[in-house]
Amino acid sequence: MYPGLLLPLLTVLGIALAALVLVAVRQPVSRRPAFRQVARRRTEAALVIGGSMLGTAIVIGALVVGDTLNLSVRQEAYRTLGPVDERVVAPPGPAGSAVAERLASLADGPDVDGVLSARTTQASAVSEADGRTVAEPRVLAWQMDFDEASRFGAAGGDSGLGGPVPPPGAAVINEPLARSLRVGAGDPVTLYLFGAPRSYRIERVVPEQGLAGVGLGGRSSRNVFLPPGDLDSAARTAGAEPYAVTFVSNRGGVEGGDALTERVTAGIRQALGPLADGTTVETPKHTVLRDAKQAGDSLGALFLMIGSFSIIAGALLLVNIFVMLGEERKSQMGMARAVGMKRSRLVGSFTLEGAVYAVSSALPGAAIGVAVGWGVAVVAAEIFRGWSVGGSSIRVVFDVTPTSVLNGLAMGLLIALAAILATSVRISRFNIIAAIRDLPATPGKGPRRRLLAVSTALAVLCACVAVPAVAGSSPEATYLLPALALVFATPALLLVLSRHAVTTLVAGTVLAWKLLAPVVRPGIFDTPSMAVYVIQGALAAFSAVILVSDNQRTLLLPVRRLLRRPTENGLAARLAVAYPLAKRFRTGATLVMYTLIVFVLVLLTEISGVLRAGVDGVVADATSGYSLRLDYNPQVAGDRLLTELRDGRSAAGISAVTPLLTARGRATDPGHRTTRPLDAAVVGVPDGAITGITFRERLPGLADDAAVWRALASDPRYVVLDAFFGSTGGPAGDFYDPGDTLTLTDPGTGREDRKVIAGVLGNGLVFYPGTGAGSTTYPVVQSERATRELFGAQARNASALVRTGPGTSPDALATRLQGEQLASSLVATPIESDLRRQFDSSTAFFRLMQGFLALGLGVGITGLGVVMVRAVRERRRTLGILRALGFRARTVRRSFLWESAFIAFEGIVLGSLLGVLTTWLMYGNSAAFEGLEGGFPVEWTSICVLAAATFVASLLATTGPARRAAAIRPALAVRVSE
Asked: Which of 520-534, 889-903, 938-952 has the lowest mean pLDDT?
């Protein structure tokens, strides 16, 4: 992922590593202490490397997920298209032959490798497998020249369809159809061509690749290739005409030809001349490759956003470690500075030591990241199967590119090196005399003049820029700029208020703004960008932890009686809170790690709970009493099917049938997110037939939902959309409103019509194509009259909505109707079952993200373990003195365990509270949650399980250091500092 970042990242990393090598070579006084410390502290070094390794693994894992999704969608180009770059579909009739003749001349052009004409129709198939009848209503029957097909595309390439021509009575099928019918070579099948049955023997089964996998939309095509003349014969018998399809292969490979798409498409339209009206020119490969990049980038960004909280935790772990190292070596550093060592040499020594840890963690982190990406791909494959439409779904194929690995390594190393350098600069600033005498650092009386002037100017600048940003609901700036203004104002506030008051005021105000911003400006969540969630979570965690850390003594007042007890437990409790209160920075850094990760885990848990609680309301809104969506072949069904549904064998279980007029169109984006036309499934609804489906937004002046449907029937300018129209990933958002306009185009004739959005549907699932159309095809709903006026004969009754009678099972009725209307290629989709299955898949996807984030929890727990390991070494003499004064070993052990429990408990509680509160505010103010009317549930069970597991893991991570602290021998500890 992100090939454009590779060169800049590697350049910056190369400069950083070159600078470190230069320091190591030219400054032996910095190099020797650094390498000596790494060799001496092997246990601590292993823990630090482990924390850094997880941070790198999370970055690479997120990028590998993007690679996997990118390849998985790109595989569609290989599997279902192969050498096919453009597809020209002519309407049934004599125009098809004329189109094929005009396009044949393109084969001699310099940009084209081949032109292939074919004829096709929608069909259905039946087989007998293991004594049972197996039917498949979604079949494409093809007639093409096998010799020309085998030579189609680049010379020496694989067209996907070759071999001998099937003899009369035989047919070639592809693997998806063979799997669906459970048949193989030599088995008999019955095909329904134009409604009439014909028997065939399967000559051979070919892989779903290139021409053998090609279709007219959707991701999976079940194809049968007939002997020469069979399709034309069946059409003449039925008095019908198949579609004429011409495939064009651009010069270059499967993906290389995409660059010529625009030029070749222009040549096709020029060659068609007057026949361009009524003929559809499609660029399926360009669409697939574009969708692949979009899907990969979107999912990769999502996982990178989730992983960014773990990356922040990993950076804080490094900061914490080096702060503790600085505290431990304060006297040594003071003496080194006293004898003439420059501060730059001290910074170089610490940075070199940290660089050793970071570089040592790079390769293991990369290996773990690839393994994490593979695990996500395995789980995602099952989830995407649940999102299939009409048997069509993304087939997840694991992939990892060198670009992603190098990007991840570079990002991980640069983040680690930046954290280490910043911390090294900070800890190198100390009073030499106080450091030699091991005295605690004392804050200055006030800010320096230069710092005061610069920070005040920055505060004013951020405040001025924040006003228009907040007024315009700019997502990232609304959160970030007011917070930065307050932080930069801190030095000025210190002139008039105490440090404690300023810290509490700034942290409390930032936290309050983070919580109130969605209420004041609810539009900030209406963006597909993931950065806003990272900023929101980071601000929440840091401000809450700073507020708590600066007011710990106040928060501990309820347990002061326990702390004052003259008992062994009281003594252990006082020791447990003494160091966290004294070392607020390191305690705060550990708390932030816990708070960040638990916050996001609880947030995901709550969102899953909101989805589950709202599914019944969504089902009711989406169906509005309709139980089934039917999609069928209008060439065969005509008006006969609707009559049979109302009066046929299954009519007793059907209470109402509403036909839908459908057409394929293109539309501009009313949200202005892209300038390219969007694929639209145009749906014409009968006047007055649909009144119960609800809207989340209506045009001013339309009092209720029924008024929107009446406006649609009376005025052909009006259309309705759902909230996902033109969605490019992330939350649905609110990018357009009733009253906004779009241009709807008939791709066959080029006719355009300006439309006005009359309403935004609460849920438009029933209007989405049910036979596996592309994932970027969005419904545009208007009246039947408006649809016929724009699309003419292309608009056909090919779908219907069905209400079932009392006591009728929609699933059972769907199966029965598909059997009765097999000749019409009818596909019946139970709306409620399909919607619940998609909700289950969404919930599973949230669990997948929670599992990915669990790596970050590992970073936090590792951080606590590292802090406690270092604490044992740092407090060695103090513990020896306490033991010499009579403290029992179990008191020391208990104090260490309680200290880690205290930190973990605070982090878990803070993260849980922030997670629940943030989700509640999002639920009430974000457009992404509109239509979910099940109320806001608090997932107590899941949160408690998460909290308990985190708490127990934290105690286990501290068990080893606690035992080591209890085993310290007083005489050795007091006499030798090491």
From this structure: 520-534
pTM for the predicted model, two decimal places: 0.80
Q: What is the CA radius of gyration of the chain?
A: 34
Cβ–Cβ under 8 Å, residues 380 and 848: yes
Q: Give the whole-angstrom CA distance, residue 187 versus residue 170.
A: 10
User: E strands, 168-287, where?
Assistant: 170-174, 188-193, 196-206, 223-225, 243-250, 280-282
pLDDT value at residue 389: 44
3-state class percentages of the chain: helix first, strand second, coil last, to nearest 5: 60, 15, 25
Amino acid at 189: V
CB-count burial class (<10 Å; 0-12, 13-18, 19+) for 900: buried
Question: Both tokens of residue 141?
Answer: 């029957």
Longest dimension (CA), the chain: 106
Q: For tokens 């205290």, name the residue.
A: 902
What single string gives the DSSP state of each residue in 206-232? Answer: E-S-GGGG--SSSS---EEEPPTTHHH
Q: Are 143 and 234 in contact (CB under 8 A)?
A: no
d(CA 794, CA 278): 8
The answer to whether residues 916 and 609 touch, using CB atoms and an 8 Å cutoff, is no
- Mapped onto helix, strand or coil, the DSSP state of residue 683 is strand
Asked whether the beta carbons of 804 and 620 are under 8 A apart, the reply is no
Q: What are phi and psi of 666, to 5 degrees?
A: -130, 150
Contacts of 527 (CB under 8 A, 6+ apart): 475, 730, 731, 733
For residues 879 and 877, what is the distance between their CA atoms, to the nearest angstrom?
Answer: 5
What's the token pair of residue 309? Answer: 């909280």
User: How many Å apart are CA 603 and CA 922, to the nearest integer?
Assistant: 10
* Residue ranges of E strands in 787-826: 796-804
What is the rounded CA–CA span in Å between residue 820 and residue 509?
67
pLDDT tens readout for residues 476-526: 888 899 999 999 999 999 888 998 999 999 999 999 998 888 888 877 776
**Main-chain phi, psi angles of 16, to 5 degrees:** -65, -45
SS3 readout for 265-333: HHHHHHHHHHHHCCCEEECHHHHHHHHHHHHHHHHHHHHHHHHHHHHHHHHHHHHHHHHHHHHHCHHHH
Q: Average pLDDT in the 790-817 region? A: 90
Write out pLDDT tens, residues 817-866. Answer: 988 889 888 989 888 888 888 788 778 777 877 877 777 777 778 778 87
The secondary element (H helix, E strand) that includes residue 720 is: strand 718-722
Distance (Å, whole) CA 656 – CA 806? 12
